[in-house]
Specification:
This protein is an alpha/beta fold. It has helices at 39-51, 100-117, 155-167, and strands spanning 2-15, 18-23, 26-32, 73-78, 123-125, 133-147.
Length: 179
């Protein structure tokens, strides 16, 4: 399973000009289910999303508080396109995403697990397989990618990540961007 999470001041989902869900301060979660995912990956992702440290603490310490710690809201949006392969040509290949009923069942389980682990009324949802307009006011911006089941990531991608890690240098964000 893969998710892209964004720290937001607000976010909403509209389908056919009808407002479906909206949140204030919290996390917008774009989530995609892979063909080999099980409830184990889904439950792991739900816990990671809720525990990810994305806000500073009251003393100014960076990356110290989670969405639960700030009592924020979550808006979950299914987005199979996160698992697209763009290695060949200019047309994305979506074979890396689970299809149909399996994707729906596991995505729904993800949303229910987030609600179960947190507060049901603070967790909102988009509409599975709908064409949605997602509006957000990014806070930071802070955008993170989370992937469960790392063993299934291709060796090429891992080698590229290792090379990038060697080149990383420490960078400190200005304090005004971390608030």
């Amino acid at each position: 399973m893969k998710a892209v999470i964004q720290r937001v001041a607000s976010a909403s989902v509209t389908v056919d000009t009808q407002l479906i869900s909206s949140i204030g301060r919290g996390v917008l979660v774009f989530a995609a289910v892979a063909p080999d995912d099980t409830t184990k990956e889904v439950e792991s992702m739900a816990a990671k999303v809720l525990k990810m440290k994305m806000w500073p603490d009251d003393a100014g310490g960076t990356w110290k508080r989670s969405v639960q710690d700030i009592r924020g809201e979550l808006l979950c949006v299914s987005q199979f396109t996160l698992l697209a392969s763009t290695k060949k040509g200019s047309k994305p290949d979506f074979h890396g995403a689970a299809g149909g009923e399996k994707a729906r069942e596991l995505y729904d389980h993800f949303v229910l697990k987030v609600q179960e682990l947190y507060e049901k009324d603070k967790v909102k949802n988009g509409v599975f397989q709908a064409m949605m307009q997602v509006n957000l006011q990014n806070d930071g911006p802070v955008t993170l990618e989370i992937q469960t089941n790392r063993a299934k990531v291709s060796e090429t991608h891992q080698a590229g990540s290792e090379a990038k890690d060697k080149k990383k240098s420490e960078y400190e964000l200005p304090p005004e961007l971390l608030e």
